[in-house]
Amino acid sequence: MKSLLALCVVWTVAVVSGTEEQKLNNCDEVRAAYSSKGFNVNDVPSKGVNGVPLKVCPQGYSCCTVEMEEKLSQQSHTEIKAPVSKLSTSLQSTFKQRHDHFDKFFRELLKNAEISLDSMFVKTYGMMYVQNSELFKNFFQSLTQYYVSGSAAVNLDSMLSEFWADLLERMFQLVNVQYEFSDTYMDCVSRHTEELQPFGDVPRKLRIQLTRSFIAARTFVRGLALMPEVANKVSTVSASPSCVRAAMKMLYCPYCSGQVALKPCQNYCLNVMRGCLANQADLDTEWNNFLDAMHSLAERLEGPFNFESVMDPIDVKISDAIMNMQENSMQVSQKVFQGCGTPKISAGFRSKRSVKESTFTSRFRPYSPEARPTTAAGTSLDRLTIEVKKKLKHAKKFWSTLPETMCVSEGIAAGDECWNGTAKSRYESDVIGSGLANQISNPDVDVDITKPDIVIRSQIAVLKEMTSRLKAAHSGVDITAESDDDGSGDESGSGCDGPNCDMYFSVPPTSDKERGGKAAGGSEVAGSPRVNPVQSNNSAGVTSRGSMALALCGLALALLASRLR
């Protein structure tokens, strides 16, 4: 009985072997497919040979040799790397373009704001502005430097304080041209800038708005720049030897049995690619967190931290501050004289220079908003953010879905008539989850889950850090700057969440008490409306403003005449 069973087994093996040998009598199809990959057709035997030496593919009769396995392994490495590289390159290109668009837009807004202010102030304040234009030029240079390099290059708070103190010094001398002021005296004036509030509430509000919008803008642009950097570094991660073997088995072992048209089963492909891209999938959590933070900050840029809404009308805001100072110049001067002492009358003032030449009596002219330069590429911040939010949403789960993306190509079979790794049949194993930890049960790729890839781990750390910066910027905080506990945290911190956040300045009170405005001869100017040269074309308002300036000058002359007597 045993002898009969043994004979039966030998006969079966012989029949199967004979069938395989008969089937592989001709390897012409394999030779054609192999040479189409750019390899030497002479590497392929003309008919099936003993496959015992093969290291990856089945070892029966085969159209493959060990040399062919090695070359096809290299080809497999290239073929699994190519789609990942292509997808990564597309991602890099998308966000490199978005970065360039935003960066160009923000830089051009800064430049246009400077041009607009210069044009308006030349028309409005004439030589008084021209003689002091370097103050404003330096102001915009500092803003640009802060946008480019952040708090490492410019302390925004200090820069703004110095700007207003310097502007006060210059204006104080212009409205009190009849006096001589020493450097020590002007230092005293600067020290009282915040106490005097000569520019009304404009400096405080502008500081808050500039801080929030600049932190949001530069952090968002840095985030856009980071995405291609991360994708590029991750795409350089090489496939492991076990991954290459598994890919070779999946893609080219059908060649060895002469089945060049047989495609891998889809679930088989998923398990192989999830094993090969296990480390990349682990990037997904922090990648998605980063994208969520970018999306939230983009919404801030659309709303309360809108860079365009702050920079576009900055000339109006600074002009508003100057008018505050001009209107309240007498009150400010009196407070300074009380605190710093009464200065001496200037000898030069007594001689040749006329009041008209020396005092700050600008002619306020309407300024047409249509004259503003156009922004970058004729676009707007709203358009840019709407577009980039779509791209950010589309980029979510990029790394964990790479296997699915790769396993839906024409070279993969969705049904049961497919290559399962050993034969043309249904793939029976379960599809394992994504990520390194799940690969412990991968039936097709040997993955060492105790050795995560160093490059991937470093990029996870980079994304975590950037996400923290983005979240801080969402609250108006630059976490790269040293904390300065000056009691202003609430103003530059949490920001405003509602849609009605005031991006423009409300009109300051104009009561007689606050304005301190009296016409020459002692009659009060009751309820005179504020007229901004940029915002009004009303000739009556312009006349009223010019009359007030002349009245102030007349009052100053009267005081001077009484002292000279």
Mean pLDDT: 80
Instruction: List the secondary-structure elements in sequence, H or E.
Output: HHEEHHHHEHHHHHHHHHHEHHHHHHHH
User: What level of helicity do the residues show?
Assistant: 55-70%
Helix- and strand-based class? mainly alpha
Estimate what percentage of residues fall within beta strands.
Answer: under 5%
Strand arrangement across the biggest beta sheet:
1-2
Total count of helical runs of at least 4 residues = 24
Count of strand segments: 4
Radius of gyration over alpha carbons? 38 Å
Low-confidence stretches: 1-20, 352-374, 481-565
- What characteristic shape results from the CA principal axes? rod-shaped
Family: Belongs to the glypican family.
Biased composition (Polar residues): 533-542
Subcellular location: Cell membrane
Protein name: Glypican 4
Name the descriptors.
565 residues, disordered C terminus, mainly alpha
Protein described:
There is one protein chain. The protein has 565 residues and is mainly alpha-helical. Among the domains are: 29-67, no CATH class; 70-345 and 378-438, no CATH class. It is built from 24 helices and four strands. It has helices at 2-23, 28-36, 66-125, 127-130, 133-149, 156-175, 183-191, 193-196, 202-235, 241-256, 266-276, 278-281, 284-302, 307-311, 314-327, 329-340, 347-350, 355-358, 381-394, 402-406, 454-474, 489-492, 512-515, 539-564; strands at 49-50, 61-62, 179-180, 344-345. The chain has a two-stranded antiparallel sheet with strand order 1-2. A two-stranded antiparallel sheet has the order 3-4. The radius of gyration is 38 Å and the shape is rod-shaped. It is found in: Cell membrane. This is Glypican 4.
